[in-house]
């Protein structure tokens, strides 16, 4: 059954403000790129996350990235997918889920992160980030994470063609990943802090950002409209329900 709260074809002229933030409500971005609402737009049936230099430096920020985040954090067990084409600069193009976590007695606050696709279409240091579906699960504790991930090779590269990236979040300990409708791997999040590490709802994120382990784009690259935009055709969500009969 379709989960309409996290499904959007992006066919209009403006982002659906009832479903999505055009920024991240709790995170400015990772320097040197700051999430800028004006870098989020819709045109020709695509959600466009465009990057560019800031007109003026803002503290540690010199570049502008983009983030679209669901306004509700009730995405739970089910299937989530998006059709995306990465930019061709050394900033990410991502589709992922996360939450603020919860307190576990005797342990502290534990939060979840489910990275369905985390690619860099113009990767400079790790070129394989351009030609793989890079999926991951993070169990966060005291700002440190325990990660269990999966990688799937794909062609053409993520900035050369659209691909469909999906995951079936089956239960609290199991996540299956799919690329272009084909199964590519299963991950079991770490159970170090909890026997059921992925047992809380999350919100959806579609983000383009800089990394501290990747060389940022040059001003010429990030301002080039031919390569500086991530395109998302649609995002869809489904909930598993018993079949009639």
Order of helices and strands: EEEEEEEEEEEEEEEEHE
Secondary structure: helix percent: under 10%
> Strand content of the residues, in percent?
over 45%
Number of strands: 17
Task: Give the terminus-to-terminus CA distance.
Answer: 16 Å
Shape-level CATH architecture: Sandwich
The coarse overall form would be globular
Count of the domains: 1
Return residue spans where pLDDT drops below 50 for at least 5 consecutive residues.
none
Structural class: mainly beta
Query: Rounded to an integer, what's the Rg over CA atoms?
Result: 17 Å
Number of helices: 1
CATH-defined topology: Jelly Rolls
- Broad CATH class: Mainly Beta
Mean pLDDT: 97
Could you describe the largest sheet, including whether it forms a barrel? 10 strands, mixed
Fill in the keyword field for this structure.
245 residues, 17 strands, Jelly Rolls, globular, 2% helix, mainly beta, 7-stranded antiparallel beta sheet, 1 helix
Describe what this molecule looks like in 3D.
- This protein has 1 helix and 17 strands.
- The protein is mostly beta strands.
- The protein has a single domain, classed as Jelly Rolls, CATH 2.60.120.
- Strands 1, 2, 5, 6, 8, 9, 10, 11, 12 and 16 form a 10-stranded mixed sheet that branches. A 7-stranded antiparallel sheet has the order 3-4-17-7-13-14-15, with no helix packed on it.
- A hairpin with a 3-residue loop joins strand 9 and strand 10.
- The protein is globular.
- The two termini are 16 Å apart.
